[in-house]
Amino acid sequence: MGDDDEMAGAGDGGTSAGGLGPGPSPDPATWGSMANWTEAERECWFMGPFGGGMPGLVRRIRRILDVSQRGLAALLGVSQSVVARWETGRTSPRASAVERLLGMAKVRATLHDEESGEEVTPMRADGARKHGGSRFPAHTDLRVTGWWIPRELRSMTSVEYFSSRDRSRERRDPAIHYRTGRRAKWVERLVRGVPDDHPALHQLVAEAEHLDEVREARRHPERAA
Question: Where is this region: Disordered (predicted)?
Fold first, then answer.
């Protein structure tokens, strides 16, 4: 609603607008101005006050910024009716708009697990990626099996196989495997546990180096002793 629109009550013990229960009655002048309101503005008036969720978040940010719906709309480059629909819950702002809202109010949102109450953080930005640069599927667990070898050489024990493995070791390029099948993942997680996130590349390199040490110790137990 506009900066000049006042919703002051006129007396105690009256009925709230729209007959929604006890509360102050609106100023009679308000009813005259409602003729020029949009449908979203009228709905915003009749539905208030609001609970939590996204409508409450938008209202909280507007209160922090101390702006009207029109003022917030101007800051975001949208119409006032869009902000009104956010606050009535008829529509929700896009993720990019929510990010801008939080930034303008200088606040940050956190997610919490409903059962444990622990904070849930986004997946790390520096997680390992495929050779083409794309990310691994978020629902999978990454596992290192050694150093990367081209597919056409993986079933061979030729000189090319070992040369390729040695080059990957020099480049710090581990072989990263993951499973997408639900049952296969269940079995693997039963044995290895459920990782919280995808590791960074340097962590997977360290895992590949550890595998080298383990395999070397198995081949030469006398050295380990």
Answer: 1-33, 112-136
Distance of CA 202 to the CA centre of its chain: 25
Query: What per-residue confidence (pLDDT) applies to 20?
Result: 37
pLDDT attached to residue 31:
53
Spans in the chain with pLDDT lower than 50: 1-29, 49-50
The pLDDT value recorded for residue 46 is 58
Nearest to 199 by CA among 140, 113, 117: 140
Give me the domains of the chain, ranges plus CATH numbers: 17-109 (1.10.260.40), 143-224 (no CATH)
Q: Dihedral angle at the C-alpha atoms of 121, 122, 128, 133, nearest 10 degrees?
A: -170
Cβ-proximal residues to 144 (8 Å cutoff; 6+ apart), any chain: 174, 175, 176, 177, 204, 207, 208, 211
Torsion sign over Cα 110, 180, 151, 216: positive
Q: What is the pTM of this model?
A: 0.60
Residue 147 is given by DSSP the state E
- Which residues have C-beta within 8 Å of that of residue 116, sequence separation ≥ 6? none
Q: Is there a contact between 201 and 133 (Cβ–Cβ < 8 Å)? A: no
- Of 173, 182, 223, nearest to 201 (Cα)? 173
Please answer whether residues 76 and 45 qualify as being in contact, where contact means their C-beta atoms are separated by less than 8 angstroms. no
**Per DSSP, what are the bridge partners of residue 146?**
175
1 contacts 41 by C-beta, under 8 angstroms = yes
pLDDT of 13: 37
Residue 72 pLDDT: 96
- Residues in a beta bridge with 176: 144
Position 220 scores a pLDDT of: 78
